[in-house]
Amino acid sequence: xxxxxxxxxxxxxxxxxxxxxxxxxxxxxxxxxxxxxxxxxxxxxxxxxxxxxxxxxxxxxxxxxxxxxxxxxxxxxxxxxxxxxxxxxxxxxxxxxxxxxxxxxxxxxxxxxxxxxxxxxxxxxxxxxxxxxxxxxxxxxxxxxxxxxxxxxxxxxxxxxxxxxxxxxxxxxxxxxxxxxxxxxxxxxxxxxxxxxxxxxxxxxxxxxxxxxxxxxxxxxxxxxxxxxxxxxxxxxxxxxxxxxxxxxxxxxxxxxxxxxxxxxxxxxxxxxxxxxxxxxxxxxxxxxxxxxxxxxxxxxxxxxxxxxxxxxxxxxxxxxxxxxxxxxxxxxxxxxxxxxxxxxxxxxxxxxxxxxxxxxxxxxxxxxxxxxxxxxxxxxxxxxxxxxxxxxxxxxxxxxxxxxxxxxxxxxxxxxxxxxxxxxxxxxxxxxxxxxxxxxxxxxxxxxxxxxxxxxxxxxxxxxxxxxxxxxxxxxxxxxxxxxxxxxxxxxxxxxxxxxxxxxxxxxx
Length: 510
Ligand SMILES: [Zn+2]
Known about the structure:
With 510 residues, the chain is α/β, with parallel strands linked by helices.
């Protein structure tokens, strides 16, 4: 059967035909994109005709840095995103404990100490008051640190004698006793312990979770942190037909998110954390002296050697780098590795790139690699000024320097909706209306491209999706209004009426 979609405003993201009226779909692929009359000629004996009466069609959104495997399990955990006090955290964790099966860890997520009345992280003793009889871990919204209760510290083998790992820190009180706070790599064992048992529910959760993504217009994601155990769950989910969208896996270590992947990791994509998350590696000048803060996971030479051997093994590498020191390290290592293996340019990208300087932007532009940024973080809120002398998410400067910039959500670290991210990139406003660096706004078309064709290219899939062109996968959306004719503040309200994945209607609100 051939499906003919006609009388639409099709924003193709294909520069050779930016706007079309109609498309024809067969066997999950676009057969033709063009005018309504032209497409009607393709009618076959067995056909389906869809008249969109002028509605707007865009390519399905691609989210090249997302954590579907964590987001799909969130419903089992204590949601602390709206907590405003430590008592709120305690009651959410206690309520989650009551519905957690015996033997399983209690897990919470999303708290932000800056939003708590106490303006500090909770302690293990406070978590013990909420959950005493089994291990509990409460993750910070960044997913780069968390607070463990006493049972969780014991299960993870963290005592006052445990040294801080490289790229991590065990929070301690004045006497040296762990407070429960675990930063970055120091959280690996507790984080893995708190997640692994729950992963047995992934396949059952994946159908509803992936349909929720499709309802937001997302048709392909790249899961940015997949352990070998999770890769097996993904294989099971695919076999069970549980995934309504397409997922590309990016491998991390078997011990935890922040560890480098094993040589035997499946698939082409590997993830390396160059610096921390909430405590990314930054350097800035304060009161006339240079301050360096945060966690740096690799030195430049070490990272260059890892990149070179990954490329030689046919791999592609995502470098997580947030702070200017992390970004300098990543850019330096990529330059060194490219000097020996120029073809590596197509096999590496920098994700996040949040705290930049004009000099760093120039260095990254010279590398010619993709940058995957998160307008979702801007949408979610700006609570403090960036370190002095650093730009924060300068999307326009990045584009103007000639860097290929794609967008992603980093959900559940940031909001999932691509249209909310596009609204933030264009309007430079948070969901609460606060304005952040209006001069860094980009155009609606640039933002749409960054979430479609740009994102597909950054994920290594530009030949197959991200724009509406004959031969590509028939992943497309029907929108309530044309984003190109919307005001910036209206973009987050644009509705995704229909989501088509591989030529099949997956979600329908029309
Ligand atoms: Zn991430």
